[in-house]
Amino acid sequence: MTSLPGSIWREGAVGATSNLRFMSLELVESDVLQRTIDEALRRGGEFAEVFVEDRRTSSAMLDQRRVEELTSGRDRGAGIRVVVGETTGFAHTADLSEKGLRDAATAAASVAREGGGGVREVALGALRRFPSSAAIEPGDVDKARKIELLLHADDVARSEGSSITQVQVALGDSTRRFIVANSEGVFASDHQVRTRFNVACVATGDSGMQTGYRPVAATRGFELLNPAVVEAAARGAARQAITKLEARPAPSGDLPVVLASGSGGILFHEACGHGLEADAIMKQASVYAGKVGQQVASPLVTLVDDGTVAGEWGYLAIDDEGHESSRNVLIENGVLTDYMWDYLRSRKEGRHVSANGRRQSYQYLPMVRMTNTYLLEGDSDADEIVAQTPYGVYVAQLGGGQVNTATGDFVFGMTAAFLIENGRITAPLRDCNLIGNGPEILRRVDAVAKDFSMMPGTCGKDGQQVPVGCGQATMRLSAITIGGAAA
Amino acid sequence: MSQLLERAERLLDSAKGAEEIEIYISSGVETEVRAYQGEIENLSSASSSGIGIRVLRDGPGGAQVGTAWAGSLDEESIHDALREARENVRFASEDEFVAFARPDGVEPAALSLSDESVLTTPLDDKIAMAIELERRVREGDARIRQVDSANYSDYVAEAAVVSSMGIRAAYSRSGAFLSVEAIASDGHDDQTGWGLSAARAPSGLDLDVAASDAVTRATGMLGAVKPSTMKCAAVFDPRTAATLLAIIGGALSGDAVVRGRSFFANRVGELVASPLFSLLDDPTDPRHFAASSHDGEGLACRRNVLIKHGRLQAFVYDTYSARRAGTSSTGSALRGGIAGSPSAGCRALQLAPGEEDQAAILRNVGFGVFVQSLMGVHSGVNPISGDFSVGVTGLMIRDGELAEPVRELTVASTLQRMLLDLCHVGNDVEWLPGSAAGQTLAIEGIAVSGS
Questions:
Q1: Cβ-based contacts of B146 with chain A (< 8 Å)
Q2: Do B376 and A107 touch (CB under 8 A)?
Q3: Which end of chain B is more exposed for a tag (fewer CB within 10 A), N or C?
Q4: pLDDT per position in chain A (487 positions), as tens?
């Protein structure tokens, strides 16, 4: 399941730093980590891992020109897991003293019920340290500058028209430092800085209220934001809301659909992304299990998951299991080439480490997760794709989606869309979901353009939220079911 | 007296000069077991605690508020959070409506929502329940091909809210849950079904309910087809009806109303729903899983009538939204954990039960779609405009009875329209986890999109 960042941020899941100074460089000394792993293995575990995290977040919200709230937060602690056979034990603690870590290690090791593993010495080498993703650390930015940006966005949004009755602007940043060490010698640390800015507008007219929303988000520091970026988001959100005041109910039934570049990537995130995650595959809970080497999509589809795209919302130097991120081709010219893996499953299956092991925080076990998932460009022209569609729907922005990996059925919701009539974009349409079955829809991709772009999103799975990117160029599906209310 | 309450009260002494302070402090323990193929797949045990601090200062144009939180309760973290909250105050706008809650004399309901047996039940018993749940689902029907997650989980949590305005509240809650997802197969088609049992303590859980729900739903979907596009009645089962009610509850939040983000704004006294529709939010009803003695600002929760026989009566308010609306708090502040500031919302919605059971409703509806699961609620429902479009799995209703299973369809309307088009309310109330109880509901004139 994914959604544009705003829907998650309203719950306060992401926030970010402030002008606090960082504590000492190391969160926990390496000899303490080493003894903690030893303790975790003492009852016979085969694999043990300590993940220590310190996250600072800050956010500011402007509503109707009132700076309603500046919030700062800090969360730090450690998650420890121990693997014995097919069983994983996990415990987490906010107490980073050696005793706190040892108690958590003992709790995690309690799944090793037979005991008697004997003493195993784990040697951690030098720490591999990855640099900050920020040029300007959020903590070094005066809060007054952040407020100026919020107010500026509000001004710009309101100047778009008197029908704009409500403007909400939010800015947040998070600085997440972690160290991960395991019994196989992985010992690495990362410093992930993320910044996001979003504008939500309500326009009011005779037909009621309509909404517009634009997110800007990247794995970067405050350098992401400047007046031009903020203005574009504000203008985009306001215009979207105003345009939708004239919107008619979307059609129902099957129609050709053109997805504009960027957020259309949510289609692939849902139609096959989750179904290509190794946990679903190993449990035979995905329609893509056992299909490597088979044609699963139109030949126009080459799909990549790539944690290495610097600055993108799903960028990682290392994943949360300590492995360097990589670019993994999942589908090549329509043929399924590989799945996404976490470390333990890839080791068990003898596959390469794809570095897709991610966790929301130290309080969660890592899972197989996407990073930046995108469709490679094709060679059509975006305008021509529309011109060659006699009747259909043009989706300018998607808001999120959801999938059942076992059946392949998925939905994704359009938050800005128009009718296409005689090859031209015409009347705006009200919000609705589109529904399809992954393996069927992937075969219906019949045109891909060259105007590639990416969009940030928040992906939820088993109760854990992580930042992801998705992207594609303008593309067309020959048919998909539009879930509108029009007869 | 709760230790948390004592701890929070001590922190109030650090208030400086004219500032006011509010402290929200919470702690909890939880266990989670996932079984797979007769073994433990994951076993997690954890305790966590944290603090949220709000600092308020009065100025000529109103008060300013700043907030900060920390995910641990050591002195250094608390000290840092307090300093950050004080700094954040300076950047907030002065706002005449900003204020902390003041004690309003309403007595909190005496509720017993925390069961110690969550803590005293041996871990081995909890593990055994997860493993047994998986076994019962696997053996529940020959067509069950896989059980990809069979879970036992529980928690005990307590929280305290105190403020320099005299607020002093402590409350606790426990929960135990079984949840399971089954995959059924008939050789060429896979379908899934999800089962749940929820209680305040492990002894209240029902393995058979969770297991048979998952098995019945998964096998019942085998052979599902995509229906044709049409307009017809939709009958929502209690689970999906609860989701609908929770969405409607969002638009009844005073916070959404004063911010111009609710389609119910300025409509108190008007007919907004069918006369069959009477909705209240009552966290003092202990049958409700989300019952609570106090709200997120430490005021007593109370019974609020929101819609009566279709007529809009009132909204729920926290202190801020109430002041902006010129009324007083209804004890409805929600808090999303330590990091979330209070905002108004429904906690325990219930719809007045109707006369009919589910079978009678199906008989009276005659033809339509019976909705068993929803997909894409976050992506296809716009709670501000009211546009509603969700993916559905379920069964056709033909000649007043459940017929063939259907999948890959959406049902669409607007929330405003659906409230008016409601035609049957069931008497089969289910008390589910989440912010709403549910019962069978029938709504006419829904757009079904299929092939």
A1: 283-285, 406
A2: no
A3: N
A4: 555 443 322 222 222 222 233 334 467 889 999 999 999 998 888 999 999 999 999 999 999 899 998 999 999 999 999 999 889 999 999 999 999 999 999 999 988 765 555 556 667 888 999 999 999 999 999 999 999 999 999 999 999 999 999 999 999 999 999 999 999 999 999 999 999 999 999 999 998 999 999 999 999 999 999 999 999 999 999 999 999 999 999 999 999 999 999 989 999 999 999 999 999 999 999 999 999 999 999 999 999 999 999 999 999 999 999 999 999 999 999 999 999 999 999 999 999 999 999 999 999 999 999 999 999 999 999 999 999 999 999 999 999 999 999 999 999 999 999 999 999 999 999 999 999 999 999 999 999 999 999 999 999 999 999 999 999 999 999 999 999 999 6
Contact A483 B449 (CB under 8 A): yes
Query: Who among B46, B47, B183 is closest to A406 (CB)?
Result: B183
Among B437, B431, B438, B448, smallest CA distance to B397 is for B448
Which of B147, B190, B385 is the best residue to mutate to test the A interface, defined by the most A CB atoms within 10 Å of its own CB?
A: B385
The residue ranges of every structural domain in chain B are 3-220, 230-243+353-449
Which chain A residues contact residue B231 at CB under 8 A? 487
Shortest Cα distance, chain B CAs vs residue A164, angstroms = 11
Task: Give the integer Cα–Cα distance in Å for B183 and B190.
Answer: 6
Nearest residue in B to A436, CA atom? B408
Question: For residues B390 and A402, is the Cβ–Cβ distance under 8 A?
Answer: no
Q: Who among B41, B74, B379 is closest to A413 (CB)? A: B379
The answer, for A111 touching chain B at a CB cutoff of 8 Å, is yes
Q: Which of residues 253-292 of A touch B (CB under 8 A)?
A: 253-254, 280, 283-285, 287
pLDDT tens by residue, B355-412: 999 999 999 999 999 999 999 999 999 999 999 999 999 999 999 999 999 999 999 9
Q: Which amino acid is at B429?
A: V
Is residue B249 left, alpha or beta, with left meaning phi > 0 and alpha meaning psi from -120 to 50?
alpha
Cα distances (angstroms) measured from residue B199 to each of B146, B207, B336: 26, 12, 22
Residue B319 contacts residue B335 (beta carbons within 8 Å) = no
Domain A2-244 has CATH 1.10.287.180: no
- In contact, B81 and A74? CB cutoff 8 Å: yes
DSSP SS3 for A93: strand
How far away is chain A from the Cα of B287, in angstroms, using its nearest Cα?
A: 25
Closest residue by Cα to residue A260 from A7, A3, A476: A476
Would you identify the CATH topology of the domain B3-220?
A: PmbA/TldD fold (3.30.2290)
Map out the domains of chain A as residue ranges: 2-244, 252-483
Q: From A401, A421, A481, A428, select the one nearest A7 (Cα to Cα).
A: A401
